Amino acid sequence: CQIFHQEGSWAEVVSEFEYEKARKLNVKGSNIIFNGPAKTDESIIKAAKEGAYIHIDNFDELFKIIELSNQFSLTPNIAIRINMDVGIYPKWDRFGFNYESGEAWQAICRIMSSPNLKLKGLHCHIGTYMMSTDAYAIAAANLMELLIRTKAVYKHLLEYLDLGGGFPSNNNLINQYLKAEQIIPSIEQFADAIIDAFYRSGLNTDELPKLILETGRALIDDAGFLISSVIANKRNSFGKRIVIIDAGVNILFTSFWYKHKISVAQDRGSYSENSSLFGPLCMNIDCVREDIELPTLQLKDNIIIHYVGAYNMTQWMQFITLRPNIVMIMEDGSVEVIKKAEKLEDVTSNEIIPLKLKPKE
Fold first, then answer.
1. CA distances from 32 to 5, 15, 16, 62, 133 (A)
2. Is 291 exposed, middle or buried (0-12, 13-18, 19+ CB in 10 A)?
3. pLDDT tens for residues 198-251?
4. Backbone angles phi, psi at 156, to 5 degrees
5. Cα(116)–Cα(323) distance, rounded to whole angstroms?
6. What is the pTM of this model?
7. What is the pLDDT of residues 283-334, one digit of tens each?
8. Which residues pair with 83 in a beta bridge?
9. How far apart are the C-alpha atoms of 113 and 150, rounded to whole Å?
């Protein structure tokens, strides 16, 4: 996060915890987009005072923000999240106000009638690991339609449109036959689809909104690698070889939906065999890859699991094994530890044994 902020990235957060993390990294409130359906009153007040952009998820939240703005004389920067049908199913319609039913327009009208709220933008997030540029073209066109209608009815020009994320990395989904590099659109193709809707709007160049994208996965997934070691070889009841490594699904949460590229760090010859790759957990679901061609491996050989930068370190857990070092390869090739491996004390430090349960001296 610190590196991306140094490069000029804003922060998009979905909780009070993430908001505080961004502020501790010296991100200005005016460079924070506050999403999420579960904002506390305290976090809304703080974000409003610091100039953050609060993206509203539902009418209950909208009414709460109106009440807080009246009570504390706040003038928060507001946007609304919008869900819509872009031809991708299942639809991501849990979050935000619906476009087709007119709910999103109703929310805009309610905000525009509230003197304390400053409507700054519109936001959508149409899905995850999106492989269709057409879906983004539809989303951009729908948001532009609402922007133009707001300008016509209220003489109010919105500052930005946030098209959210969902842009794929080079990981392969489990049921995906071709490699990701062969089937996913390029960033340029996504850009063409989105920008085309902007220019078709008929707005003057100086009226076009700022475009915000939440491209986390596409930016960081390919930058992460997991180094693991072989701890055992065996065969199952059908004679299929099983390789057990010291990293399981508690560390590699994305193995449930990604078919991660896996390579061997040592030269073990040309012979290979269809194998299953399991982690060290005492559960049958601890399968990193059900089927993979692997050479004959020895104990302590290293396995490299590719493209683990997104959604692993944020979701991993201390289940049976502790979490390992995280290191960063610097521009000069040196290696720096950026998060230390856990110790037992790190896990138990917040635990409290009630006095009634403590053994008597």
1. 11, 12, 12, 19, 27
2. exposed
3. 999 889 999 999 999 999 999 999 999 999 999 999 999 999 999 999 999 999
4. -125, 120
5. 47
6. 0.92
7. 999 999 999 999 999 999 999 999 999 999 989 988 999 999 999 999 999 9
8. 98
9. 12
Residue type, position 205, single letter: T
Amino acid, res. 86: V
Query: Look-up: residue for tokens 């872009």?
Result: 86
